[in-house]
Predict the structure.
Amino acid sequence: MDTVDASVHYSQAIDEKPSLLVLILDTNPYAWSTLSATLPLERALASILIFLNAHLAFSHANRVAVIASHTKSARFLYPTTTTTTTTTAAAAASGSEDPLRDANKYRQFRIIEDQVQASFAELMNQTTAGELVDAKETMMAGALGLALGYVNRLVRVDDGGVLGAGAAGEVTSMNARILVISVSGDLAEQYVPVMNSIFAAQRKKIPIDICKVAGETVFLQQASDTTRGIYMQLEHPENLLQYLMMCFIPDTATRRHLVPPTQINVDFRAACFCHKNVVDIGFVCSICLSIFCTPPEGAICTTCNTKLDISALGNFGGNPAVVLTKKKKTKKLKQSKATSFSNEASATSTPGTPAS
Amino acid sequence: MSGNIRGFGYLESLPPVTFRRLYQQPATALAIFRRMLPNLAKTIVTTLLYNETPVALGDLEALVRPESYRLACYAFSKLRRLHIITENNLDVSLDPVFKKNFRLALTGGHVWLLSGGDNRGDHHSFGVPCNTEDKKKITVQFLDDYATRQFEAILHYMVGTHNEVKPSKGVITLLTKGGLMERHGAGSVATITKNGFSFLLQDGNPQIWALLIQYLEMSEELGMEQTDVLHFLLMLGSLELGQAYSVNTLTETQKLMLADLRDYGVVYQRKSSSDRFYPTRLATTLTSESGGLRSASASMSSAMVKDAEEGKGFIILETNYRVYAYTDSPLQIAVLNLFVKLSTRYPNLVSGRISRRSIQEAIKMGITADQVIDYLSAHAHPQMRKSLVTLPPTVVDQIRLWQIEGERMRTTTGFLFKDFHSTQEFEEVAKYAEELGVLKWKKPARRCMFVTRHEQIADWLKRRASAQQQQLKKAAA
């Protein structure tokens, strides 16, 4: 090979830390059913599993976790803390069934696949039709909370040295990131917990990536924006795998070298605490910064119970009163500007003479 | 210089045909992807993996920030050298064989995971587990002990300490062939060479690879199929510790290999006629990245056998250059003796000091200052790790300075560019060369510069010249 390469100068290994990926899958059946024409849930799950495998293929030490954000609850699909009988049985069955078939698959991949599928099936079996009535929401706040907790636990183990003022040079904590695959819209109900999770992630420097397959949520956009994650609204949901493999695969360290997929104008609006409406302009409690779409009843903040002075608002919302102010005369003008067209100026001072 | 010991990087020099054949096994494709590519290159591979049509090189390069241009160059050159990407007129696509098998590795051939054009392959490249119960249960602990015993025996043999386990003849041949040890005259006892010393100072994983690569070369002479050997080695990395695997599906070559690998402690077989084998930790960590192994995985309780056995570390280095090592292992003492002047030995402790002479002697033997420092920090006593910097900086600096003392002049082979038409042209070329990282020296006053490689610059100059000509033509027309 005679071609020039710059690798000679990179003889020292580039520091590549292992990374942890926590994937939050929005499993709201209602939202997925609307997508069934382009991207049925099974296919999406298959794509996601390939994506997870690819992430694990990056490095031996890479880790994943999968969390389902269901209609009323959030739970781990992998790793499951309570190894249910079904999952172990499934794993055992596939193991003993056909050892030759087993050999076609990297073991780590198989374990994850089996477990995710088993716990996913379990989750779906437990979901009754009754629960789904009017269940357009998804427990995103809970899922984000679980994800952050998990990240904290795994990364903290590695960080032990830093806390104990140990050898900082040796410690390599994992890079962690959260990826949300979201299909349902409107999270206004969970505005406060979601925002709290976002700020926690921001503090911990954990980027939250959003892969928006369908729907529209203001707060997830803000989540990726504040945590410097990637926000992607998929134009062609059927190509989910391609999107995942291209935009969401690089870890935080690699992203520094990549041009991020463009994020078009983030919607920074907030939801009010009283009716969970997304508001453009609202009222904010001066003590606790709670947001209201209309002044709260009795002028008492519902969050911190502070008596607010509504009178200070004046007639907010009415027509703006235009207060006319008198034009101030410019007393003193600079010599160069004094030769202006203004009559008044020339009346007070003649060019060349100081105004005093 | 450690450059004489070839590690994993040696694989890059294999011919394209070998690579094509290697990629026919999903496990191998996965192992090469995982172990040999930088993260940026991995990202490029995944980007291309599910793209059916080739992508323009410019588009791919546009993904990378301009500041990281060099990293991108590095990633692409790595991909080209491993023949993972093929280029056709600036269009880039993955090597079809690699693409197919890497997809298979990721999907595992599951019917429901398949997407367009894949067919399920029955490759069994991830090892066929043995499902029947072994008569005697083999525990992970046992495997670890076995691996450590075998591998330590090799190391002990190299430093010439007495050990109850003697390495087999095959191992000794391997060591002498690989230049780690040499025999002076037939029948005399082999002694360790310079290369052998720097080999000793390496981490466990590079050591094993150095041996295995040597083995690979030797196997070729013995008429074994090289790709078969490599397939097997890379497959070992994807097996699971403590699980028995069946011998029956292996090729003849691979069965032959088992006997040799058993000697290195990489796999365990109770009898050579046994129909199953167990990979040890040395095998299962083969394709882990060398860097992440010691530090990151340590907390994941999958640390290397050696580290686990030695405890967390045993060396205390003081600012007055004194070294105290809490050890009674002859191997560790022998290694320390390479660069420390040992003075006292107690039942569980040796002490000595690092001096200019001791370091110079080590350097004469081909050990670099960085190797010494790495060894010291890797085996530092927990007490030392409590401070922010593990090793006293004064000592570290001094060790480096002692090395530099001997290197007043450094030679670089390369090419001189001169006789540029204009200063502007010179500046442009110099800038380009600097971006590529090949520029060693330049003198603008005399318009000449020295670069380590010239092909890409020449290519660039040609392209620029033709572009300029076209512009001139356009201007004329």
